[in-house]
Amino acid sequence: MSKFKVVHYINQFYAGIGGEEFADHKPELRDGPIGPGTAFAGAFGDKAEIVKTIVCGDSYFNENLGEAKETLLGMIREIDADLFIAGPAFNAGRYGVACGTICDAVSAELGIPVLTGMFEENPGAEMFKEKMLIVATGSSAAGMRKAVPTMAALALKLAGGEPIGASIEEGYLPGGARVNFFEKERGSKRAVDMLLKKLKGEPFVTEYPMPDFDRVPPNPAVKDMSKAVVALVTSGGIVPKNNPDRIESSSASKYGEYDITGVDDLTEATYETAHGGYDPSYANQDADRVLPVDVLRDLEKEGRIGKLYNKFFTTTGNGTSTKSSKLFAQEFAKKLKDDNVSVVILTST
User: Fold this and answer.
1) For residue 63, is pLDDT > 90?
2) Does residue 99 contact residue 118 with C-beta atoms inside 8 Å?
3) 32, 65, 217, 273: which has the fewest Cβ within 10 Å?
């Protein structure tokens, strides 16, 4: 039996080209497995072979969507592959969206089975989990060792046209389709076991998870903005030059608190972004594009707001968990309330 022919898509980072500074790397086709592809090659054994690897920068793909898709489809069309794999992207947002987009195009236009892998909170997972199989991964490349065997096993099933089991069996993110299978124990026993664990405070996994909607009631409108103290908070990663507190570019473990007393403009010489999830060029040229200190200073001088609060709070939203974000907010929200701040403007990217 001949090996299945696999085409693998990765970004500039996993190809060893570089990080954000090389995110505009144009699509290129390379022979054989590269980066995580070598792990896939080991997991495939003698059943499949990565014959080609496509490399494309995250920024290039997402900023040149039509052109990038057509270029990649042209490359893949010439290979006559049995399977297309993208990623895994873990929690890298632009990478995840690129993986989902090109998998969707390959499946729809070339009729080739596709597979990718992402963290459940990756925006690409939310966009594409109902259209394709997306293996659930950890939030970072530290989960590569666990992700690859699951993806490889599912990939071989797809390439061979074998039946695909339920998400809980195969390890992919639930996409809304129900698949029947037999449990080892009957439902009444499983329900009682879960109840007993819950009563004892032990961990358990429900078989019917409910959606968790975090709703925050809005505050009443500010009656008089001319007397309001306005504060700026951002998840866009704006920091003083050279990032003095070393806020991480992704999955931030901290936030920054910076004094802007007497600052009317966030200049290229004094401020930059630490964020690793978007092209930093425009923010580094003028950080006011993300954190509008200059505009608020104008409003302050015109008397349209009472004053701009003398500090701003910042972190990087890229891959940062909801739990961490809530903890950050609880800390600096207390400071804002203690200083009688009446309005907070939260900017993103």
Assistant:
1) no
2) yes
3) 217
Q: What distance in Å separates the CA atoms of residue 334 and residue 336, rounded to the nearest whole number?
A: 5
DSSP state of 220: P
> Under DSSP, is residue 52 helix (H, G, I), strand (E, B) or coil?
strand
Average per-residue pLDDT for the chain: 91
Single pTM value for the model: 0.65
Q: Provide the pLDDT for residue 1.
A: 60
Per-residue tokens: 238: 């704006």
| Helical spans, DSSP H, in the chain | 36-44, 58-63, 65-77, 93-110, 123-128, 144-159, 167-170, 187-200, 281-285, 293-301, 322-338
Handedness of CA 287, 290, 291, 295 (dihedral sign): positive
Domains of the chain in start order, with CATH, are: 4-170 (3.40.50.2300), 225-347 (no CATH)
Query: What does the pLDDT look like over 31-48, one tens digit per residue?
Result: 999 999 999 999 999 999
With tokens 């505050």, the residue in question is 219
What is the rounded average pLDDT of the residues 256-283? 93
Handedness of CA 13, 15, 17, 23 (dihedral sign): negative
Asked whether 251 and 320 are in contact (CB, 8 A), the reply is: yes
96-100-101-107 Cα dihedral, nearest 10 degrees = 160
String of DSSP letters for 312-330: EEE-B-TT--HHHHHHHHH
* Rounded percentage of the chain residues whose pLDDT exceeds 70: 97
How far is 313 from 311, CA to CA, in rounded Å?
Answer: 7
How far, in Å, are 38, 58, 195, 243 from residue 31 at the CA level?
12, 20, 54, 39
pLDDT band at 213; cut points 50, 70, 90: low
Output phi, psi for 55, to 5 deg.
-115, 135
What gap in Å lies between CA 50 and CA 230, rounded to an integer?
A: 55
